[in-house]
Amino acid sequence: APVVSAIRGLPAVDIEPGLMNREALAAYLLEVILEDYPLQEQAMDNIEWNLLGILAPGEDILESQLELLGENVLGFYDEDEKTMFVITGDDAGLGMLKYVLIHEYVHALQDNAFDLGAVDEAIGTHNADASAAFTALVEGDATVAGAEAFSQVVTQEELTENQMAPARTPSSVPSRAQTFLRELMDFSYPAGQAFVERLIQVGGWERVDAASHCVGEPQDPRRVLDHV
After folding, report:
1. Distance CA 130, CA 151 (A)
2. What is the spatial distance between Cα 73 and Cα 209, in angstroms, rounded to a whole number?
3. What is the pLDDT of residues 70-104, one digit of tens each?
4. 3-state SS class at 54
5. CA-CA 20 to 30 A from 61: which of 45, 54, 120, 184?
6. What percent of the chain has pLDDT over 70?
């Protein structure tokens, strides 16, 4: 935590640790998704994705999301409970666990400094592009800061263990819908990382902070994006 806080330049916070198994994670994900994804919107999306040929007959977007997330999440930070959860039952190795915890701790620092939940509420659920852009900023921030912190705290033994660990494989062959969903979800990491790296190049972490502060103030984007 001190290493991450120093790199990111944000005040350290005390975070409750939590453990969650895959069954509890599935229930948690369902509750979180349904909060912002009402049944009527799901029905319309299912019709649209069927017409586009993304969904196979009988396939459902919500079920595909839950299956994809349920198999791939290793840990997460809960903004409401101010708790950092690790998913039990996986033999991910200490190095991977350390990487996940570092990434999620950056989210805790962001939440404490910028109130991520309030920003989410300000954006709302009806502007998918704005939501995706903000998610990319948040995840890019955590990816860049997390990678730097990880390089400082990981041991050679942990790195070797990570390199020798078998690759995680899905329990079944991903459907076209799951592949499409994965591309949508993965966007925030490489795109956000590239954006944050450019902000740092222009003005250091202070410029990243400015971007986080000005979300919801689109009337003057030049305040953050000039020269980017």
Report:
1. 32
2. 27
3. 888 899 999 989 999 999 877 778 888 899 999 99
4. coil
5. 120
6. 90
